[in-house]
């Protein structure tokens, strides 16, 4: 790992994104928080700077090619972390086509285009790390999540191609795939499902969310952040095109 790097993180105001930003900032790296909400970006960036860390922000819609180009020009990254994500749950015949396309634009085309924008300088410097935040749904499927599952599966294939295209440089691209992560977004899902299914929140956790996971535990955001740190170290320089699965044994079944 280089001494001080610039880390650009999309979806950076959310639970996973901000945990990654904090972890890299604590290690002395300059983090750039990229997200849609400028107020949230300002607050999160200010909180990092107040602790004496290097931080900046970039208002970024990953579906907007002009904003992608602007972000890459202002904040060329040593490490790009494609974390932005959204979800929509419906049967395919009830899935609004524009919503289906939006999920793919945010979670597959967006990472591809942002990687494309950052790659030339990474190659010029002979150093680059791209870390995609995938999901257990890059490997398995759940009903009613066709767009999300398709996007996350696609991310793995995309990463393999980019790894091959840039194997002549000190460049790696990998995807971290966690099972359910305890974030504010998931907390809301637990409450909503408890109401929908007439269950307690604990029953939702045990019977729905953690049922496929042998270890019966949520993944902590710190586990994802520390895995990202590891992928930037010299010890990981030959780990590329790989899927790092944090699933408590889910996919062993």
In total, the number of domains comes to 2
Low-confidence stretches: none
CATH topology heading of the largest domain:
Rossmann fold
Strands in their spatial order, largest beta sheet = 3-2-1-4-5-6-7
Q: How confident overall, as mean pLDDT? A: 96
Number of helices: 8
CATH architecture of the largest domain: 3-Layer(aba) Sandwich
Q: How many β strands by DSSP?
A: 7
Backbone shape: globular
Looking at CATH, the homologous superfamily of the largest domain is NAD(P)-binding Rossmann-like Domain
CATH class of the largest domain: Alpha Beta
State Rg: 18 Å
Q: How would you sum up this structure, described in words?
A:
- By secondary structure, the protein is α/β, with parallel strands linked by helices.
- It folds into two domains: 204 residues, NAD(P)-binding Rossmann-like Domain (Rossmann fold); 37 residues, no CATH class.
- It has eight helices and seven strands, in the order βαβαβαβαβαβαααβ.
- Helix 1 links the parallel strand 1 and strand 2.
- Helix 6 crosses helix 7.
- The protein is globular.
- It starts with 5 loop residues before the first strand and ends in a 7-residue tail after the last strand.
- This is 3-hydroxybutyrate dehydrogenase.
- Belongs to the short-chain dehydrogenases/reductases (SDR) family.
- Pfam families: adh_short_C2.
